Amino acid sequence: MVVNEQNSMVVINKLKFTYPGIDGHPPPGSVPLIEDFSLTLDAGDRCLLVGSNGAGKTTILKILGGKHMVEPEMVRVLGRSAFHDTSLTSSGDLAYLGGEWRREVAFAGFDVAIQMDISAEQMLFGVSGVNPQRRAELIKVLDIDLSWRMHKVSDGQRRRVQIGMGLIKEIKVLLLDEITVDLDVLARADLLTFLKKECEERGATIIYATHIFDGLENWPSHIVYVAHGSLQLALTMNE
Ligand SMILES: Nc1ncnc2c1ncn2[C@@H]1O[C@H](COP(=O)(O)OP(=O)(O)OP(=O)(O)O)[C@@H](O)[C@H]1O
What we know:
By secondary structure, the protein is of the alpha/beta class. The protein is built from seven helices and ten strands. The chain has one domain (5-236): Rossmann fold, CATH 3.40.50.
């Protein structure tokens, strides 16, 4: 979607992927789940990834997040291989926030354990190297009450703290896998505004997989439609 791939934040180049069988290899004769998928995104891009259940959105985000191994040249994030260069995620430059940590009490990043009676304050202030202004903004945007105890809060309240934890570092490439399901309408709108600002002001790149389109009319710079593991349609939105 941009001309110069060298400076691009995310480059997916003819991505092909099959989930491995029990021996760690793709079952013989299996058809790749993702096939010939290419996409390039630049700083500031906000890409909506849409498609039906099972289309492959989560798989693509997880590959980008370095959670599945593919050939290094197929997926480059900040010019590096997401799977092989673990410093991408450990530095906080790249983050995948997905649905799976919604049900497990836990976002276990940044060495903060939360499967216990712990307050939102202890969590959010327990992360080192954080810009205090950013933390304060996130607490405001997500309307987090610092006295919340994580074992007693509602799903939506826990979700807010988890999103706050997930966004607390100044991430350069952010992969969001339907993170707003538990949020009420206002919290979702505020979060989307915050995320858009991240792209416009800091040049972050966000890929957001979702089925919920409410309030997204003016949000994306790109929309990518996936079906059967292939890119079917890519739209660049006019500002
Ligand atoms: N760990 C796994 N092992 C084998 N197959 C898997 C695995 N995870 C997902 N799949 C298969 O890959 C396909 C794509 O799944 P994926 O979760 O990427 O879809 P999705 O587009 O995110 O769907 P949804 O909108 O329901 O979240 C599905 O057919 C699914 O059964």
